[in-house]
Structures are given as structure tokens and as C-alpha cells.
Design a protein that fits this description.
Elements lengths: L9 E6 L10 E6 L2 H10 L6 E5 L1 E2 L8 E2 L2 E12 L5 E17 L6 E6 L18 H14 L6 H6 L2 H11 L4 H9 L3 H16 L10
Parallel strand pairs: 1-3
Antiparallel strand pairs: 1-8, 2-7, 3-6, 4-5, 6-7, 7-8
Length: 214
């Protein structure tokens, strides 16, 4: 378990569109670009082994690639090297952060000064959603999966804890980058569930359809 005092002021960031990491959830990544191989090598040398996931935020008329204000840091908990010197890694979400500014340096990857303030709940135990109507939510999911021609292990979904289920769906469903960011920034599990339900209901009413569960 991380404590607030263990979290650094500066974090290496991996700006990856559409990639969502949430606290206590796991995100598999394929690392192959030289700059991110260097980032991984440096992350493995420090005790926390933290990498910050944050989505790019391109603004019309502004040069360069900006970053969204909020991301999530994950600890490298698994990694394996392929024969062609690429890495398959797993990040386990630790805490969200707010980007304060980018930090210049000699590293080939981007680094940011961040604030962890306001995300104390991320460092605790799994959240519970007291207003969660699980049967109703599962019925909505069944209609959504059928409409999108998706398949899944329903027994596993039905047995999953509330937070694991909501967070896994938030991370895995093929939603827009903006929707992923909204799910990340949801202040509580209940808010994230409500946001996810709204997105699913919108899709069922004829919104942008997802082709697959990645």
C-alpha cells in the first residue's frame, strides 16, 4: 500500500490516447518505442516503479501536444521481454494526479510536476457504491453487449466486486477518448457508474457504436 508521503512530486508520463488506468485496476501495455523503453528502464530503478498515464489533449491553434489535467499513476507490477527486445508490462493503478507543469530534462520521455491533492481516496481500500442496483446494471449490460455483438464471461462479470466491475468496463469498453477522461475524473465510484450507465444508454439509443471489447 502506498501512502501519500511515498508519492513523488515529479512523474514520468506516458501520453497514450484512449488508455485509461484507474486506482486498484490493472492496465497491460506493450512498450517498444525507444523513449518509452528508456522510461521503463528508469522506472524500474526506483522503489515506487511509477509511470503516469495521461491522455494527450490537442487544442486547435496550439503548437505541440498538450496533456489533460488529470492522469493516473501506476506501479509496474509485471513485465516480460520479448525476443525482439520489446516489453509487455502491467501497471497497477495507485492514484490519480493533477498535472501542474511539464519538467524539462535530458530524458527522451516527458516528465511532469504533479499534485496528488484531492485524490486521497485512491490510496485506500476498494470503494463501495451503496446506491448500486446490481441486477438492473447487469440487465443493461446484457442489452448493450447483445446490441454491440460483444461476448464475455458472464459468470465472471456477475461475481466481480462492484469497483472491479465498473472500473474494468470503464477501461475495456471501446469508448471515445473524451468519455474515457470523464470516467477517470469521476470523483467517486458512484459517479463513475452513473457516467458509464449514461454512456451505455446513449449507445443503445443509437450513439456511436463500439465494435469490440478490447
Amino acid at each position: 500500500m502506498f501512502k501519500a508521503v511515498d508519492l513523488p512530486q515529479t512523474v514520468a508520463v506516458f501520453p497514450l490516447p484512449g488508455a485509461l488506468l484507474l486506482p486498484r485496476s490493472r492496465l497491460p501495455l506493450h512498450i517498444f518505442e525507444p523513449r518509452y523503453l528508456a522510461m521503463l528502464d528508469d522506472a524500474l530503478k526506483i522503489p515506487g516503479r511509477l509511470i503516469g498515464m495521461v491522455q494527450p489533449n490537442e487544442v486547435p491553434g496550439r503548437s505541440g501536444t498538450g496533456l489533460h489535467a488529470i492522469g493516473c499513476a501506476g506501479r509496474v507490477t509485471q513485465f516480460s521481454e520479448t525476443e525482439d527486445h520489446r516489453y509487455m508490462i502491467t501497471l497497477t493503478g495507485i492514484s490519480r494526479f493533477r498535472v501542474l507543469k511539464e519538467v524539462d530534462g535530458f530524458q527522451p520521455y516527458r516528465r511532469c510536476e504533479v499534485s496528488w491533492e484531492g485524490f486521497d481516496r485512491d490510496l485506500g481500500l476498494a470503494e463501495h457504491d451503496k446506491s448500486y442496483n446490481r441486477p438492473q446494471f447487469m440487465e443493461l449490460l446484457e442489452r448493450y453487449f447483445a446490441s454491440m455483438n460483444l461476448s464475455t464471461d458472464w459468470d465472471t462479470l456477475k461475481q466481480a466486486e462492484d469497483e472491479l466491475l465498473v472500473n474494468s468496463l470503464s477501461m475495456l469498453l471501446d469508448l471515445s477518448n473524451e468519455d474515457k477522461q470523464a470516467l477517470l475524473e469521476a470523483p467517486s465510484l458512484a459517479t463513475r457508474r452513473e457516467t458509464l450507465i449514461t454512456l451505455i444508454e446513449f449507445a443503445l439509443l443509437g450513439g456511436v457504436k463500439e465494435d469490440k471489447l478490447q
